Amino acid sequence: xxxxxxxxxxxxxxxxxxxxxxxxxxxxxxxxxxxxxxxxxxxxxxxxxxxxxxxxxxxxxxxxxxxxxxxxxxxxxxxxxxxxxxxxxxxxxxxxxxxxxxxxxxxxxxxxxxxxxxxxxxxxxxxxxxxxxxxxxxxxxxxxxx
Length: 146
Fold this sequence. Notes:
It contains five helices and no strands. By secondary structure, it is mainly α. It has one domain (2-139). The protein has helices spanning 2-17, 20-49, 58-88, 95-121, 132-139.
């Protein structure tokens, strides 16, 4: 996410100020960010296909998981199209491209927020581990002095 946002911002500033080096670095960062978005979508798809144990939150987050999945596919399509268009632009960025990229980046930030909620609030895709201190207490062993 950050690489895509940074790349677009640098590309746009370079275009607005006539700095070719900024625009080149921004374009490379933006394209690398699009590749990273593709990798994130692929890793999410792989995670979805893996067997997982039932969670207490599964019923609560099922609609959010589906929304997150399909919006991710849509955003990947949008950013792939933006990348193809960006590769064909050799001068200043057109206003239409800037507006579409900003809309896509807003969607990307919302998608990142939803992904964070799924993981950190609901534990989606996270396997629970037992804390070492509770393992020691349950087995009747003494805790090491600190």
